Amino acid sequence: MQLGIYSLEKVLFRGEASAVNCPTESGEITILDHHRPLISILKKGIIKVTDEKNEEHYVPVLSGFLEVRDSGQVKFLVQEDEA
Fold first, then answer.
1. pTM of the entire predicted model
2. How is 49-63 classified by DSSP, letter by letter?
3. How far apart are CA 5 and CA 36, in angstroms?
4. Is residue 3 part of a domain?
5. Distance of alpha carbon 30 from alpha carbon 49, whole angstroms
6. Which tens digit of pLDDT belongs to each residue from 29-66?
7. pLDDT for res 71
8. How far is the C-alpha of 81 from the C-alpha of 60, rounded, in Å?
9. Considering its fold, how many domains does the chain have in total?
10. Confidence of residue 16 (pLDDT cuts 50, 70, 90)
11. For 72, left (φ over 0), alpha (ψ -120 to 50), or beta?
């Protein structure tokens, strides 16, 4: 899937990913290829990205939004947790 994680200041991750785990208001979810369309609110926690090379990337967030599109694009707009 094509993944983008953005804060208001910078791009935190952009590229192909095989899985994304993230904390939402409804609980932790995992997004894989061909996930159904979704818009959700993020809560404080860690977004864990597994890229196409099976390497893991971690993005601490305070809050944000997530959108999964039919086209396989996944976008996050987040407030970073810099603590």
1. 0.92
2. EEETTS-EEEEEEEE
3. 19
4. yes
5. 10
6. 999 998 999 999 999 999 999 999 999 999 999 999 99
7. 86
8. 5
9. 1
10. very high
11. left
Report yes or no: 68 and 49 within 8 Å, Cβ to Cβ: no
Rounded-to-integer distance, Cα 9 and Cα 46, Å: 18
Residue with tokens 């996930």: 35
- Token pair 């086209």 in the structure block, residue: 71
Q: CA-CA distance, 77 to 3, in Å (whole number)? A: 11
Domain containing residue 74: 1-32+65-83
Hey, which bits of the chain come out as E strands? 2-6, 11-24, 27-32, 38-42, 45-51, 56-68, 73-80
Q: What is the CATH number of the domain that holds 74?
A: 2.60.15.10
